[in-house]
């Protein structure tokens, strides 16, 4: 806990000490920090995830990593039936933590996440929670730094950069901000290293709304939403990890 507190202090100090630093000029999305609002709880989750991932990787090398915020995190619970097949077939690890922003993922990567792992695929989707305090351009920069860090930690892995899923009602601040971010993310693609994919339209009804069967609160998928997601990524899993006989159920 002392180390984490020191890291928080250092990050905050660097913000205030930066020449001309203020809330408008400093991009918090690129500065690695833990979750300061729920530090003790977040730290316990992060450390527990690291321990579990190390054990899984020692038992059988991890082939697939998922990383992000609550949308990714809840795959293990709301999409449990699907997730269990990923663990069985691909020795998958879910590093996503609910409430995380780009800066929190960066902190995790700088403090042991994915160390010693050589996955074939890394499915990354992050930035939704940054919408509250960063511009789309700042968030994109944060995602870029995450990709750079993942390339250092797992240099032989293909990063599957996923467009952030649409959220809330058409025309809402959330929907428009996410759409603006998703227009910027394709520039981060890099042949053979970073594959950009956008599955957003698969979650929308014909009128652009999101049904409660897919995302009850307009943001977090229900089991039907996770089935849609599973169907969308299955061809990528098949291509890079090989087709398995018991593929995740993806009917929607």
Description:
The protein has a single domain (2-10, 34-241), classed as 3-Layer(aba) Sandwich (Rossmann fold), CATH 3.40.50. It is built from 8 helices and 5 strands; from the N terminus they run ααβααβαβαβαβα. The protein has helices at 2-17, 39-59, 70-73, 80-90, 102-110, 136-153, 173-184, 223-241, and strands spanning 64-68, 93-94, 121-125, 158-162, 194-197. Strands 2-1-3-4-5 form a 5-stranded parallel sheet, with helices on both faces. The longest helix has 21 residues, at 39-59. The protein is globular.
Instruction: Please bin the fraction of helical residues.
Output: 40-55%
Structural class determined from secondary elements: alpha/beta
Overall number of strands: 5
Largest sheet: 5 strands, parallel
- How much of the sequence is in beta strands? 5-15%
CATH class type: Alpha Beta
Low-confidence stretches: 1-24, 246-252
Largest sheet, order of strands side by side?
A: 2-1-3-4-5
Q: Residue-averaged pLDDT, rounded?
A: 90
Shape: globular
Order of helices and strands: HHEHHEHEHEHEH
Distance between the termini: 44 Å
Rounded Rg = 18 Å
């Amino acid at each position: 806990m002392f180390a984490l507190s020191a890291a928080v202090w250092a990050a905050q100090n660097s913000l205030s000490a930066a020449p001309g630093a203020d809330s408008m000029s400093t991009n918090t999305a690129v500065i690695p920090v833990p979750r300061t609002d729920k530090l003790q709880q977040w730290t316990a989750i992060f450390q527990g995830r690291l321990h579990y991932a190390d054990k899984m990787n020692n038992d059988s090398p991890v082939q697939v990593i998922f990383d992000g915020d609550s949308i990714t995190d809840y795959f293990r619970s709301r999409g449990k039936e699907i997730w269990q097949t990923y663990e069985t077939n691909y020795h998958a690890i879910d590093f996503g933590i609910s409430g995380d922003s780009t800066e929190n993922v960066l902190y995790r990567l700088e403090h042991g996440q994915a160390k010693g792992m050589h996955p074939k695929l890394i499915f990354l989707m992050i930035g939704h929670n940054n919408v509250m305090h960063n511009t789309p351009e700042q968030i994109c920069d944060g995602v870029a730094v995450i990709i750079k860090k993942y390339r250092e930690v797992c240099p032989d892995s293909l990063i599957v950069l996923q467009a952030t899923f649409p959220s809330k009602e058409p025309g809402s601040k959330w929907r428009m901000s996410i759409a603006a971010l998703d227009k910027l993310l394709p520039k981060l693609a890099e042949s053979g290293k970073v594959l950009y994919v956008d599955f957003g339209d698969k979650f929308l009804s014909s009128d652009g709304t999101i049904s409660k069967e897919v995302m009850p609160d307009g943001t977090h998928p229900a089991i039907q939403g996770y089935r849609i997601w599973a169907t969308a990524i299955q061809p990528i899993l098949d291509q890079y990890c090989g087709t398995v006989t018991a593929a995740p159920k993806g009917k929607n």
